[in-house]
Amino acid sequence: MSQYAVIFDMDGVICHTNPYHAKAFEAFFNKYNIESSEQEFQDHMYGKHNSYIMSYFFKRPVEGEELLRLEFEKEDMFRQIYKSEITPIARFPEFLDELKQEGFKTAVATSAPKANLDLIVEGLQFGPKMESMLSSENVTKHKPDPQVYLLTAERLGVYPSQCLVFEDSYSGISAALNAGMKVVGVLSSHTREQLPPCDAYISDYTEITAQKVKELINS
User: Fold this and answer.
1) CB 216 within 8 A of CB 182
2) Quick one: pLDDT at residue 44?
3) Can you say how many angstroms the Cα of residue 40 is from the centroid of all Cα atoms in its chain?
4) What is the DSSP string of 48-72?
5) What is the pLDDT of residue 1?
6) Measured distance CA(164)–CA(160) in Å, rounded
7) In 3D, which of 212, 27, 186 has the Cα closest to residue 92?
8) 61 and 35 housed in the same domain
9) Is 4Fe-4S set as a keyword in this record (predicted)?
10) Does residue 108 sit in the same domain as residue 184?
């Protein structure tokens, strides 16, 4: 096996799910008479864990059993909306195949619930190609904390310096950088200017190759 690993976030990185999360949150917030704006979604929803999102929009701490109940309700809305729309970001399946052909270890590290990860894995059938898949239930600290990335590197048997992460959000990129990993910013939801400095940026996977990944990790 290669000494190199590529780790993918999921929302906005494997699939462009954020518009569907926004639809689910709009329906959810309407039910609870909570006002929200697209700018607030940009600043306080994309890339954030549900504990932060709920507490921000409800304007009070949301935790414990209440958080679990509200999180399940909103994420179930998302899954119902998205289950017939599952589509990978352009050339993701081909890029993943290229990485496997070159001997890379590959993984998913998402802040989303496992049920969301399972939905997308089943829809795109990439599970057998991943040596590790972690979701929100697997960690106690959420992005921008590096826990999910450090745990993934440990599971893959590689050093953080041997990993390249694909991320699309400020908190996710910060988590990968905090883990000591190289990062490619996927510009599906934000511009370069809205994100921390990355080692490279792509709009989709037509703009990256396995050879480029090796060069970035070794740079």
Assistant:
1) yes
2) 85
3) 19
4) --HHHHHHHHHTS---HHHHHHHHH
5) 40
6) 8
7) 186
8) yes
9) no
10) yes
